[in-house]
Specification:
- The protein starts with a helix and ends in an 11-residue tail after the last helix.
- It is about 75% helix and about 0% strand.
- The model has no long low-confidence stretch (mean pLDDT about 85).
- Helix 2 runs antiparallel to helix 3.
- By secondary structure, the chain is mainly alpha-helical.
- It contains 5 helices and no strands.
């Protein structure tokens, strides 16, 4: 097989088509991961209104989960969160403490 035959074969295969499949797979994984993070937010918000349990722990958990969800949305490319704040009914007390860390500082 000559070099010219090899180049013709490479042109027929279209290597860029292989990256399209990979890009699609990556986008599907991002969507799946973002969906799982949203489910965690929904569960944490529901735990805030559930009777009984530790209200402070539920609030701290909700803040952590919502913050992680927002970070993940930003990594995917969604910069505005107002639509999901309304859609998921994220309460103001969760948003106020977003990203705040409690406990001893790490050295």
């Amino acid at each position: 097989m000559s070099l010219r035959d090899s180049l013709d074969l490479i042109r027929l295969v279209k290597p860029e088509a292989g990256t399209t499949a990979l890009d699609h797979e990556i986008a599907a994984e991002r969507a799946s991961s973002l969906g799982a993070a949203e489910k965690r937010v929904i569960a944490a918000i529901a735990a805030l209104t559930a009777p009984g349990g530790d209200a402070d722990l539920a609030l701290a958990t909700a803040r952590k989960v919502v913050w992680e969800y927002f970070v993940q949305r930003e990594l995917v490319g969604f910069r505005r969160h107002t639509d999901v704040i309304q859609a998921l009914n994220i309460p103001p007390q969760v948003l106020v403490g977003l990203g705040a860390m409690s406990g001893k500082p790490r050295s």
